[in-house]
Specification:
231 residues; alpha+beta; endopeptidase fold (from Nostoc punctiforme); six-stranded antiparallel β-sheet; 10 helices; disordered N terminus
């Protein structure tokens, strides 16, 4: 018998939304796999000021290498607004902290190990340099810019994300090619108004199949609203 495509479509939609904000999708009841142990990545080829990229299924996470196995990167995170306890804040950002950070538009530029930053993904080094050519700043200047910005900051999925942070540090201009591509995709979707209805139906199906939770209700509310606003 043919499998019902609705749960599959709902699952795919949720996965893409989670990837959009750099959430690591976890299976129900799972605590998620721990990050690789220190030394998993060969950092001998990284230089201070390098721009590191970790490709995900749909989007890319960015950081600036500071040397000594440390990476500065921007992450949505609600915790800095709730506590000043550095030990708690420095722990690896959980999905719950991240999602609440996206909703409240709160983030932090934090320093993590390469292992915690990449979380098992492959790393590209200075892959964006080809797009900026003569605009590349000195490596030490890029690292110092990143270090000066470490701490709490405002967050915007489209206007102030991890890509804006690294392009400002290494190239002097905060831009996001992912944002541009995302907006173009939205414009294409809007040309077919049926897509808005389809997203609503998939969202409702995800609630029915997966239960009432932030990971299901938020996409159902915000995706159609965003598509409508973009039109």
């Amino acid at each position: 018998t043919m499998k019902n495509p609705v749960p599959q479509a709902a699952s795919l939609l949720l996965e893409k939304l989670l990837l959009l904000v750099h959430v690591r999708p976890l299976s129900p009841g799972s605590g998620g796999e721990p990050p690789p142990a220190p030394g998993y990545y060969d950092t001998s080829c990284f230089k201070r000021g390098d721009l590191l990229e970790v490709p995900r299924t749909l989007f890319i996470h960015f950081g600036i290498y500071l040397g000594e196995n440390r990476v500065a990167h921007l992450m949505p995170d609600i915790l800095p607004a709730l506590t000043g306890d550095r030990r708690q804040i420095q722990q690896v950002v959980t999905n719950k902290r991240l999602i609440l950070g996206v909703i409240t538009k709160i983030a932090s530029i934090r320093v993590d190990t390469v292992e915690d930053f990449a979380y098992g993904g492959s790393i590209l080094v200075n892959h964006m340099d080809r797009l900026f050519q003569d605009q590349v700043l000195g490596s030490e200047e890029a690292a110092r810019r990143a270090e000066k910005l470490v701490g709490a900051t405002a967050y915007s999925l489209l206007w102030n994300n991890c890509e804006h942070f690294v392009t400002y540090c290494r190239y002097g201009a905060p831009v996001s090619f992912q944002t541009d591509k995302f907006c173009e995709t939205v414009k294409m979707i809007i040309r077919d108004q049926r897509s808005v209805l389809a997203s609503v139906l998939v969202g409702l199906a995800s609630i029915v199949c997966l239960g009432l939770a932030p990971s299901t209700t938020l996409p159902t509310i915000f995706i159609p609203f965003f598509l409508w606003m973009a039109g």
